[in-house]
Amino acid sequence: MIGSLNKRMQDILAERRSQRTRLVTKDGRCNIEYGNIKYSNHFAFLADFWNTFVEIRWRFVLFFFIASFTLSWFIFGLLWYWIARTNGDLTWQNPPEDHMPCVDNVVGLTTAFLYSLETQTTIGYGGRALTPLCPGAVALLIIQSLAGAIINCFMCGVILSKISSPKKRAKTITFSDMAVISPKKGALCLSIRVANLRKTLMIGSQLYGKLLRTTTTPDGETIIMDQVNIEFMVDAGKDNLFFVCPLTIYHIIDKGSPFFEMAVDTLHKHEFELVVFLDGIAESTSSSCQVRTSFIPQEIMWGYNFLPIISRTKEGRYRVDFSNFSKVVPVATAHCPYCFHNIKGHHHHSISGHDNQGFEVIDINDPPNVTKL
């Protein structure tokens, strides 16, 4: 019991360390900090106030939503109170019986605030109304109506933009937890599985990757986060994917690949991060969307392949079993890319992995973890 708890704690600590060391988290967030920014540069965020409001957290958006309306009601309430005070409408000023107020029934600060709220929200209960005797009050009514319309448009636009943000569409596109290296169609390939959880398609989808690592130039200069292009493709190509079902994308490890110098026993000793990108346009909203994830050496399994997840029922319907989405099975694989290309029959066989127990028959039962297309 104690040994299992210790192992569990070690796994949790190791996962936290990997989250801190990677640049892009598994859910696509960039793990980077900016320091020593000049104070004057902070005003750039105010100049670009629209994107600033759209990108801040929901709790701040709700705070500004409540504060903007409440503060505007109170400020205009003070102005209505000042007009009533200037005209002698307040109770403590003891106006005569034949006195004509600028605003009926505005006799104090509370009633002035209520009139401001009713004016800006166009409630109009009928107890308080503007009279035509004060031109300044008419001008203030016009100004408050315009200011209220601007606040309404701005805050509604911010909320709608946050709700329809393409980042939310990215939540329904998922990558496999692990990447695998195995033979595929006569080549040694690094494969990753990606799935669209919605039935609506991603139009014009493109997949590509960046390998981030620290390198040293011949001049002795150390380059942190040196980026190397990694080309991914599927059997039908790499552009304009038909993303109606989960796809297995792969990168061919040839002499031009940065993975060519690695081997099964040295892979986990390297320090790099493979960032995978999926760009596309959401079919339902026509908004551009980018999905990101990353893999560190400990998340790349040499000598494994993904289990199949697509089958066809007796009724002719296609089904996707997501219980096998990230599961792998050991396959005979060369010890290193050089061995694969130059030494025939030189294979490395993994001894651990998941057994492939599914897809022995065509039909699949309907467990709760099956997604129908």
UniProtKB/TrEMBL annotation:
GO MF annotation: an example: ATP-activated inward rectifier potassium channel activity
Protein name as catalogued: ATP-sensitive inward rectifier potassium channel 1
Species, as recorded: Solea senegalensis
Membrane topology classification: Multi-pass membrane protein
Source taxonomy: Eukaryota, Metazoa, Chordata, Craniata, Vertebrata
Pfam families associated with the record: IRK, IRK_C
Gene Ontology biological process: potassium ion import across plasma membrane; regulation of monoatomic ion transmembrane transport
Keyword Transport: yes
GO CC annotation, single: plasma membrane
Record-linked InterPro entries: IRK_C, K_chnl_inward-rec_Kir, Kir_TM
Chain ranges of the Potassium channel inwardly rectifying transmembrane domain: 24-166
Family under the similarity heading: Belongs to the inward rectifier-type potassium channel (TC 1.A.2.1) family.
Superkingdom as given in the UniProt entry: Eukaryota
Domain Inward rectifier potassium channel C-terminal span(s) in chain numbering: 173-340
